[in-house]
Design brief:
The chain is α/β, with parallel strands linked by helices. The chain folds into two domains: 141 residues, Rossmann fold (3-Layer(aba) Sandwich), CATH 3.40.50.720; 183 residues, Dihydrodipicolinate Reductase, domain 2, CATH 3.30.360. The protein contains 14 helices and 15 strands. A hairpin with a 6-residue loop joins strand 12 and strand 13. It starts with a strand and ends with a strand.
């Protein structure tokens, strides 16, 4: 098996993750993959990144030139959301396989362009949907597609974003649709993609309600917390002695002071969404995203003709059970939460999957379809909120 040669665009936290993922995979299978070039517009940051990760590679500022190299098989794109569309499309036009951080684009036309370029090139398209590799996700997919609750009727899903976590998005570029597409896309696409993947069904139409309901302007609050007289604000943030390196690397364009007021900053993203969607084979989804929970949770209730499965993927309440008809006692489904959880394990599995698909020459079309629809519900929901109507989802 020959080594898969990669190019990396972006040296922020996600770039670091995928460099480490390749290192871990090479420990199991020596020389399975390697980076030949790394791209970032900031030369000093790029040099420091390569030195920190012991990367002896070409350091470049021109992403198109890197993607155009004949000796590179695949591109790994870890830049802010609004850049994904152009970079991924350009890589496919150069005949490269692509792993791009989610979402693949921040608007519907961009998502279509990326996927059509992938289809034309007949190359692998993967995005950063690490939830698919969680043991609970794998078990849910096995049970639901295996008929454990009969014919699937639909699901009720709540994306309960913890209030601290939710506020953090509104102190960064994610609060502006020109950079993120909307919080429903940036954050919600993880869970919306998981519903598609677990059920094996793709969305057809959406009706949604929501907007900016929590982080509304406050006359009694200042623009930054250290100048504010509202002492009991649950989103009050103290300034650290120095800017954390991790935040500096990820905040990027449109960022704000660490203690920026989440109520009074400029924003156009939703913070609250309730939607209903219809999928293939008359499968329905009821989904909500809020930013007012004590802790981060993803709660699922899959309903079929012969019972239902209830699952909670949060770190503090990880577990699932099935209730079968007619009157059986609820049955706990044994699922062991992976050590470390979240990205710690799944990032490596995602990279392993990407490399495996390149190595095997797998047909990329199904993955491209799922990549397209990973954001289609969010796009349609934003359009529905603005228009007040049900929105049909264009198919690829």
């Amino acid at each position: 098996m020959s080594t898969v040669n990669l190019g990396l665009i972006g040296t922020g936290p996600r770039g670091r993750v995928y460099v480490n993922a390749v290192k871990q995979l090479n420990e199991k299978t020596p020389d399975r993959a390697r980076y030949l070039g790394v791209c970032d517009l900031a030369a000093e940051k790029l040099a420091a990144f390569c030195e920190r990760h012991e990367l002896v590679v070409d350091q470049v500022a021109d992403s198109d030139a890197l993607a155009g190299r004949d000796d590179i098989d695949g591109m790994v794109i870890c830049t802010p959301d609004f850049t994904h569309h152009r970079l991924a499309t350009a890589a496919f036009e150069q005949g490269k396989h692509v792993m791009v951080e989610k979402p693949i684009a921040i608007h519907p036309d961009g998502a279509r362009a990326v996927c059509e370029a992938a289809l034309k090139a007949n190359k692998v398209l993967m995005s950063g949907f690490v939830l698919r590799y969680d043991p609970m996700s794998v078990k849910l997919r096995e049970m639901i597609q295996g008929g454990a609750i009969g014919k699937l009727l639909g699901g009720i899903v709540h994306e309960a974003v913890g209030f601290h976590h939710g506020a953090s998005y509104f102190r960064r570029w994610h609060r502006l649709r020109e950079f993120s597409g909307d919080l429903l896309l940036h954050k919600g696409c993880h869970t919306l993609d998981l519903f598609n993947w677990v059920t094996g069904k793709l969305p057809r139409r959406v009706s949604a309600f929501g907007g900016t309901e929590v982080f509304l302007p406050r006359d009694d609050a200042a623009m930054v917390c250290h100048e504010c007289k509202v002492e009991d604000c649950i989103h009050r943030e103290e300034l650290p002695e120095e800017e954390p390196e991790e935040r500096s690397a990820s905040s990027g364009v449109g960022s704000l002071p660490i203690d920026a007021c989440v109520y009074n900053v400029d924003k156009d993203s939703t913070d609250t969404v309730f939607l209903v969607g219809e999928f293939e084979d008359r499968v329905r989804l009821s989904y909500s995203m809020t930013v007012t929970s004590q802790l981060d949770e993803r709660r699922f209730n899959f309903i079929g003709t012969e019972g239902e499965i209830i699952a909670n993927m949060s770190r503090h309440a990880y577990g699932m059970h099935i209730r079968r008809l007619p009157e059986e006692e609820p049955e706990e489904i044994p699922i062991e939460m992976p050590e470390g959880g979240g990205h710690v394990l799944s990032d490596v599995q995602l990279m392993d999957d990407f490399l495996g698909r390149i190595e095997s020459g797998a047909d990329p079309e199904e993955d491209i379809q799922f990549a397209y629809h990973s954001g289609s519900v969010a796009f349609a929901a934003v359009q529905s909120i603005e228009s007040g109507s049900t929105v049909d989802i264009p198919q690829l």
